[in-house]
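Table 4 source record.
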Amino acid sequence: MRDFSPSTVPLTDSNLIEASAGTGKTYSIAIMVLRLVLEKKISIKEILMVTFTKAAVAELEERIRLFIRQGHKASQGLTIADLTISGLVEHAIRQTSREETEQQLKDAVLFLDETSVLTIHSFCQQTLTEFAFETNQLFGSETLKDIVTLIESEVNKFWRQNITTMNVNLLGQLIEHGLSRADIVSVIREHISGKKYFEYDENESYSICDEDQVSFSNTIKELAEKDKEIKECVYDHIRNNSDHLKSITEANKYAKTSLLPLIDTPAQFVNLVVSKKGTGYIDKLYGNIIAQHSECDELVEEKNDLLQSVINKIYCHAIGSVTKAIDQYKLRNSLLGFDDMIVNLHKAVVHDGNNNLISSLQNKYKAVFVDEFQDTDKLQYEIFHTTFGTGKNILFYIGDPKQSIYSWRKADIFTYFKASGEVDNKYGMNVNYRSSAGFIHAMNLLFKPHDDFDTFYFRSQENSIDYINVESPEDNKKGALLLNGHPDVPVTIYGNQNNSEIAETVTAQIINLLEKEDYTINQKGTSRRIRPSDIGILVRKNKQATAVKACLAKRGIPAVTIDDSKILQSDEAVYVLYLLEALIDLNRSAINKALLSPFTGYDTKAVLALNEETVLNDFREYKSIWDKDGVYSVLMKFVSDYQVRALLLNHHTENGERTIANLFQVIEVLHKVQSAKQFSALELVSWLKRGIDGMQTEGDEFEQRVESDEDAVKIVTLHKSKGLEYNIVFAPFLDLDTKIHFRFCSFRDTETGDYIFADSQQLNPEQQQIVDEQTEQENRRLIYVAITRAVYKCYINKSLANYYKDSSLVPFVTSVKGINPMLISFEEPPTIPARYYYSKSDEIPETNNVKPVNFNLSQVNWRKISYTSLAANHAITPKKELQHCYK
């Protein structure tokens, strides 16, 4: 792998750039785009840039706009700050002329609005729409954003037609064993997303006829009767030998406490003995009972296997039936799901090999950049490789396999390995421009404490990810975090007993950073105190973010959360639902429920003290406003009447800003939905209920927004933190494990490369090993992502609980202990000072309030108006009067 330089890399063929964290990937792409315009004379319209999130699209597009405009300034002889850009422009001028270079960049500036910076789904959708004939698409297809509602509807039909009509006895056993509509919905969702259910074969029929149902039911009944018969024999044995059992039980201090009182109730006694099977004294005292009962265990296992096989048949039957119905619905209504966009384009390009389509795309885009390439899946890669990897186009894949953390959405690290073997050139970006020199050295030690350390758990596999030490720039200007005037240790590791203690330790150390003048950031000769906005706390789960934020809030430390939480799953959405339900069903009980919320601050006593007639009249008025002006008007009237904003902000309410932000976002979403879909009040309430219950929603408007842009600690989930950086990082929950916490799990089939999903309880030992290995690999990549967000310092909390003794963090912590305390230190956790409450430092600059601009128009016949006034309702002038005005 060759060293990469964006200023000199040949702009030709297919290329893979492996860009480690903090090495300036976005900057490099923008520089290469500028070079394509200057050196290859490629129009900005003919360059395609694909990445995987809307935020990444916005960042990349902004950077390209900036660099093109700066290049245009440089071509005019103006001075710009970036010497690389000015050098490229000067080189182009020497190769051609100033006039030609200036015209090229002027044209690029003019066409900036036509720049193709797209997400993968946007690219597929745009291509399918533009080349509808070549891809056999219906013209005018729309995007199906809420596919879960459609899935649930079709599953309900399947349930009515195929499940409720089953043999009653068999159905009862299946439901008791775990059959549910929710699980069928999960199976269908995974299948539609492109994962294969490990029991499903599309060529097989899985319907269960009446005769089979009766046969299954009879078999289960026979097994149950045998089980009952054996258990009765065991119970009789206990009754007949109760005196002996009491004697041996009383002689053992462990058995005496828990088992002696149960001997007279044989069923309870047997259940407890069997549950403790394997314990030394249990096996010694009651071995004969366990032996007699073992046949029951075999019968139960046989019964469970039979029931599970029937449930698997139902899952497979549902996959064939429900997905067919969904496809027909989408066809009738000209709808495309997000996964359909990729599947359909892949079919046209790869499966059908449509040369006209491929040729058209090659002519449209002369150069292609695929950013965040480590997050691609097999189908996405095959689309780009087949279309642009033939040698006719310039193709760059840019990514970091060490940051591949989206396997749950089929991001396939092995696709990255495949591409690595198929491209013409491979380059590496290994100079870290994000972090200070000291932190870079500590990071190298943590991820490679010795030469044979298996950082990413590939255990000498043919294709693997290796950690290569990153370098600091020769003129690293990041400075350092100082403690008592000397550089602080870049990585500090604390040991904590439990999660509650971890939250306390994080809070205590943040207090030290904010309050102690000994901590300063020194950069370019200037020194300053630590601010809340310098700090980022990275968590794995939303509930961890909630716990840490609550701990900070108790001490008045400002903090905001940036995660994947959906606004409709927030507490505020539930309280708004109670309010809307009270407006529909006007009775005192519903109104009391609506008023017992953070929005009013009322407790039960205060609600009961309200005048019933007054409250009812108020809510009748609210309902009238809703019917006349919509949900937005009525909810804003409620907010105004009950002074919700002042209540939450002025009374030091815990998480007051979060509550306000969520409330207004819920109001905005409801207004948008009601306006777009023309919902009645009942329909809107029903839609909100489904959202609260977990209905899938697509779009940025459904993700919880940051509650404040003030100087605050940022609490971010690991997946959201990718691409971000913080001066000081806290990584308190990196004890990741390989245990499966959900009913269904997914993994990559090592032979076919397909993603498989299965019931986690049915995995065979080989599949379980594959799941454990792939989970461990991703856990270690998550640890890498967390640590590499830091500029100066990272605090890590290692849980000492026995549950985490084999966590993914353990190999790193144990390997670095004692090697170099100047880079990585192990310290005792700090404690929170008694009665501490944060007050903003005088050193932190206040946000300047922008004064309103007042101006007068020089022309008397012109007037200034707002956009709102343009949309305001105006009096209607009768036609006759209007005609009279012109006479």
